[in-house]
Amino acid sequence: MSGLHGLPARQRERESSLAEPAPYRPNGSTAIAAGLFGLVAAATSGYLPARLFLDIPSGFSLGDLSPLTLADLAAYLAASLVLLIGAIATFFRATAGAVLLIAGALLALGALLLEPALSGSPAYVQYFRTLLRFENFAALDRVALAAAVLLVLVLAGLPRTFGYLRYRVPAVPASSPSRQW
Question: Which of 9, 41, 52, 112 is 20 to 30 A away from residue 102, measured at CA?
Fold first, then answer.
């Protein structure tokens, strides 16, 4: 069919019928929020060891630290790296991004919970009371890390997040338009 001036006529769009439901497209708000909180957690987790490395006085080396302290610093650095990669992968809609966010969040929580045990006897109540006084930036950083990591764990673990990351747009077959002369 041709319309005015010999141009092809537009086909009218069909009304959606009850037989053909509208395609389900999941909302990505939880995945994007998990990625953003993952970036916050990666930054706060990487701040702690970086600050310690910068504050090491001359004549003192990392070899002088106890093995548990080195393990804690390594856990913070590994958590920061895993959270950063997971957040970036989540923004690119990769399912592995949410899995990496969960793994990085668990690693950061483990590092936070290992820190009170470094003094010999784990005094968790005293440790968390000291953190919640917000006396210095390090305490504020640890509280921000704990909050961001808990939000990442909840948001990245939701089925809605995985539904969004696994969803792929159905491919429409590319066919040549049929012209009727």
Answer: 52
